[in-house]
Amino acid sequence: MSLLDIRNIHKTYDNGEEVLKNVNVQIESKECLGLIGESGCGKSTLARCILQIEPIDRGSILFKGTALHNKSERLLKPYRKNIQAVLQNPASALNPKLKIKESLIDPFQQYGSQIDMKHFTYPSERGFIGQLLEMVELPSNLADRYPHELSGGQKQRVTIARAVSIEPSLLILDEPASSLDVLSQASLLTLLEELRERLDMSYLFISHDLSAVQEMCQRIMVMKRGEIVDSFEKERLFCEERHSYTKELLSLFE
Ligand SMILES: Nc1ncnc2c1ncn2[C@@H]1O[C@H](COP(=O)(O)OP(=O)(O)OP(=O)(O)O)[C@@H](O)[C@H]1O
Ligand SMILES: [Mg+2]
Questions:
Q1: Residue 38 phi, psi dihedral angles, 5° rounding
Q2: What is the helix (H) or strand (E) element at residue 220, kind and residue range?
Q3: Other C-beta atoms lying within 10 Å of the C-beta of residue 163
Q4: Which numbered ligand comes closest to the C-alpha of 16?
């Protein structure tokens, strides 16, 4: 059974535009699946549908075999703990009025009773926050600062630490590095790779950047205007059998 199994989903926004068309995606345990496609093709919409932030028109989203769509918020809570996200814009991800330590502890306070902690310990709030900051290679004195006192890269690391603090099985990464400079991007991706191994997570890694996807992911899906047009093991990226659109994307990176 796949960790996440998306079958034939369709999504239309209120303006009548069908943004996702018969999308099928399977993500296996501990796998990193890449999703690429040009701006506006529907990648973030898919992420929001998986996170149950947006409802789907039809189709199904199963997590470890249990349907997530059409569930009440109460029944969804254990699944929300298991599917966390780091979304496109780090600036809006952290509440500007909360100190970093308050943002970091928030998911644990919400879901603590449901966590069977395998990777972190909770000796005290301070000790727990120290572990999280160390894990994302940030100094412990950032705990008492506010988001505006951090760089974009540091904010993104805090967002990642917060998302993994409750030990989710699946992390959705929507362009996690796109707002950073090239060097910060590379070190953030290296950190994410290490964390996936260390914390036994699966990733859905969304990016425009084919080289980042190729480095991070075992399998790649290509989306065009709301449809998955190609799907393959990353070793087969350069094979003749690739969809013409994948080849077009590839040519942009040469
Ligand atoms: N809340 C919304 N209401 C109506 N239309 C929307 C909404 N969000 C996105 N769209 C439209 O849905 C389409 C897909 O948008 P989406 O944000 O999923 O694309 P994307 O692949 O993530 O693009 P990018 O790479 O630029 O982030 C676009 O045409 C967009 O205008
Ligand atoms: Mg997007």
A1: -70, 165
A2: strand 219-224
A3: 22
A4: 1
Q: For the chain, list the domains and their CATH numbers.
A: 4-253 (3.40.50.300)
Neighbouring-strand partners of residue 230: 222
Q: Which protein residues touch ligand 1 with a CB less than 6 Å away?
A: 13, 15, 19, 37, 39-45, 208
Asked if pLDDT for residue 112 goes beyond 90, the answer is: no
| 8 Å CB contact between 216 and 203 | yes
Q: How many CA atoms are closer than 13 Å to the CA of 3, on its beta-carbon side?
A: 21
The pLDDT score that the predictor gives to residue 86 is 94
Q: Residue with structure tokens 């990353």?
A: 234
Helix (H, G, I), strand (E, B) or coil at 235: helix
pTM above 0.90, yes or no: yes
Kindly tell me if the per-residue pLDDT of 19 is higher than 80. Answer: yes
Residue nearest to atom 22 of ligand 1 (CA): 44
The answer to whether 109 and 162 have CB atoms below 8 angstroms apart is no
For the cut 80, the answer to whether the pLDDT of residue 114 exceeds it is no
The mean predicted confidence, pLDDT, of the chain is 93
Instruction: Tell me the C-alpha to C-alpha distance, in Å, between residue 193 and each of 32, 115, 198, 213, 221.
Output: 9, 23, 9, 11, 19
Q: How confident is the model at residue 90 (pLDDT cuts 50, 70, 90)?
A: low
What residues contact 123, with CB distance under 8 A and at least 6 apart?
Answer: none
Q: Judge whether residue 91 has pLDDT over 80.
A: no
pLDDT, position 100: 97
- Tell me the β-bridge partners of 18: 12
